[in-house]
TrEMBL record:
Residues 1-19 form the signal peptide. Its EC number is 1.1.1.37. Coiled coil: none annotated. This is Malate dehydrogenase. Belongs to the LDH/MDH superfamily. MDH type 2 family. It comes from Notothenia coriiceps (black rockcod).
Length: 184
């Protein structure tokens, strides 16, 4: 039985090694939302069961120790599609030659914080990320903005990346949809 399992594993490894890995960055990678996404990305649920992945985990400098723990957890899973995991706090590393970006990281609204202060903080974050996409990413990169307010943050990122087609940007607005539906 062990021989059959070993053979199956080797076949799976051989198939998945044939394709070139895509480079995927996840921002805010030490946060809870990103944490819940990373395993699905790494095991092939997002980009396909035969698509190898280089996963770049981007977060702010104070979160690097947490990212190291996330890297160890992903490595412990021994997922055959996961070729490399790169933790970083540098946009030039995080966005270099990427094929896909999942922009999860944004400033959360804190108690007593006015909406304008939240928007101001997120403008800075998504301008920086948009500029990094423009400068370092492949021009065919697909971008998904998750960090709220997702539609505003997506617009800011896309405006800050003029060399990337606008149709390559999308955002998750299900929360906004649900809120609007409940008012109708």
């Amino acid at each position: 039985m062990l021989t059959v399992l070993t053979s199956m594993y080797l076949v799976v490894r051989a198939v998945s090694w044939e394709a070139e890995p895509i480079r995927v960055v996840v921002t805010g990678a030490a946060g809870q939302i990103a944490y819940s996404l990373l395993y699905s990305i790494a095991k092939g649920d997002v980009f396909g069961k035969e698509q190898p992945i280089t996963l770049i985990l981007l977060d702010i400098p104070p979160m690097l120790p947490v990212l190291e723990g996330v890297v160890m957890e992903l490595q412990d899973c021994a997922l055959p599609l996961l070729r490399e995991v790169i933790p970083t706090d540098k946009v030039e590393v995080g966005f270099k030659d990427i094929d896909a970006a999942i922009l999860v990281g944004s400033m959360p609204r804190k108690e007593g914080m006015e909406r304008k202060d939240l928007l101001k903080a997120n403008v800075a974050i998504f301008k920086t990320q948009g500029s990094a996409l423009d400068k370092y990413a492949k021009k065919t990169v697909k971008v998904l903005v998750v960090g709220n307010p997702a539609n505003t943050n997506c617009l800011i990122a896309s405006k800050s990346a003029p060399s990337i087609p606008k149709e390559n940007f999308s955002c998750l607005t299900r929360l906004d949809h649900n809120r609007a539906s409940s008012q109708v």
